[in-house]
Amino acid sequence: MHARLFLVTLMFLFGWGGAAPGVAGPELDEGAVTRPDDAEILEWMRFQGSLTAEEREAALKGILTRMTAGGGETPRTDFMTCAALAHRGDSRAQYCVGHSYENGTGVVEDLSDAYVWYALAARAGYGAATEARERVKTLLVSVYPAPTDDELETLEAAARDAVARLGAEALK
Question: How much is the pTM?
Answer without folding.
Answer: 0.81
